[in-house]
Amino acid sequence: MPDRLLTVAEAGDMLGTGERFVRRLIAERRIRYVKLGRPVRIPESALTEYVEARTVEPARRTRVRYGRAA
Predict the structure, then answer these.
(1) 55 vs 22, 49, 52, 65, CA distance in Å?
(2) Which among 3, 38, 53, 61 could disulfide-bond with 43, CB atoms 3.0 to 4.6 Å apart, if both were Cys?
């Protein structure tokens, strides 16, 4: 099944940001996009890849053990 092409506004909604942030990603070429003449569309898989590449896993905290209280 082909990838769904999203408008800049839809991509912003999906990322939880505004259109300005998505346009900056496009201008800096930090995300894949399709140019259809003047309009720009972002493949849904490009957003998924962008989020996965920037997802930070939580650090496993080791419990600090202190000596016995006197």
Answers:
(1) 17, 10, 5, 30
(2) 3
